[in-house]
């Protein structure tokens, strides 16, 4: 571990509850969830060649599978990585059909509807299509890896894997305590991406400063678009960077979110 204690070393292991987090943010497909899922569908349509038969690393996955629903049909493998073993265990419960696993049906319905460009409403997605997508996701999730963004080798010194796609959703800004530490984490995580590989990244924006899980409050490093551009300078192909923004109205202390795609420099 890093010799300097990070927020997620001091707070997350002691205070973060995987099921409490799911109950807080995934009881319904709110506008933030919808926007992220729409962004993922658009990304799969924009970069089919990059995703075809790709091995995707979802870094900082938390206990959730929603962001992988629309990636699964194109990728060859999905590796889920998180700092907390409890988050990985929550995902594995779903993969193994555990009786008390979290239910993702409403998110599956929304993703399949979005993939149809709205021609199939959520309620009209068939049970057969739901079960087929669930089976595909479970098949594609082949590894569950403890990861630490504060380390130069986030998956461990022995890990030499290099990924075609690296995705992050609301991760590093909640792990770092300063903008300087956040920049170092960005550098560390994106070292796992192959040259010309695809980066898919969603993060809280502007004056977003914290989020709740039950009664626990976790800090967020506020980020501007210029912070993203500076952190990725020298890492990505400059003309490949695409940044979108949306307001977040559902969650106290969170102002908005950036949605980013880019290709790593060759």
TrEMBL record:
Q: Which InterPro entries match?
A: NNMT_TEMT_trans, SAM-dep_methyltransferase, SAM-dependent_MTases_sf
- Which Gene Ontology terms of cellular component type are present? cytosol
Keywords assigned by UniProt?
Methyltransferase, S-adenosyl-L-methionine, Transferase
List, in alphabetical order, the Gene Ontology terms for molecular function in this entry.
Answer: N-methyltransferase activity
Which Pfam families does the UniProt record give? NNMT_PNMT_TEMT
Per the UniProt entry, what are the Gene Ontology biological process annotations, in alphabetical order? methylation
This protein is called Methyltransferase type 12
User: Which species is the source of this protein?
Assistant: Thioflexithrix psekupsensis
């Amino acid at each position: 571990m890093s010799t300097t204690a990070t927020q997620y070393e001091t707070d997350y292991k002691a205070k973060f509850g995987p099921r409490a987090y799911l109950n807080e943010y995934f009881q319904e497909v709110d506008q933030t969830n919808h926007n992220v899922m729409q962004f993922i569908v658009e990304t799969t349509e924009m970069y089919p060649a990059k995703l075809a038969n790709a091995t995707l690393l979802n870094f900082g996955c938390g206990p959730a599978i929603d962001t992988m629903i629309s990636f699964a049909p194109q990728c060859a493998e999905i590796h889920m990585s998180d700092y907390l073993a409890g988050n990985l265990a929550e995902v594995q419960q779903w993969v193994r059909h555990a009786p008390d696993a979290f239910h993702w049906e409403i998110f599956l319905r929304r993703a399949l509807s979005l993939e149809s460009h709205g021609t199939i409403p959520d309620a009209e997605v068939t049970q057969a299509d739901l079960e087929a997508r669930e089976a595909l996701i479970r098949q594609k999730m082949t590894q569950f890896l403890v990861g630490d963004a504060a380390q130069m080798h986030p998956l461990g010194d022995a890990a030499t894997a290099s990924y075609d796609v690296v995705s992050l959703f609301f991760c590093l800004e909640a792990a770092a305590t300063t903008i300087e530490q956040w920049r170092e984490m960005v550098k560390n995580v994106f070292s796992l991406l192959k040259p010309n590989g695809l980066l898919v990244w969603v993060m809280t924006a502007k004056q977003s400063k914290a989020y709740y899980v039950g009664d626990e409050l976790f800090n967020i490093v506020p980020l501007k678009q210029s912070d993203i551009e500076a952190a990725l300078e020298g890492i990505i192909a400059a003309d490949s960077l695409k940044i979108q923004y949306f307001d977040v109205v559902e969650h106290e202390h969170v102002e908005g979110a950036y949605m980013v795609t880019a290709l790593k420099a060759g």
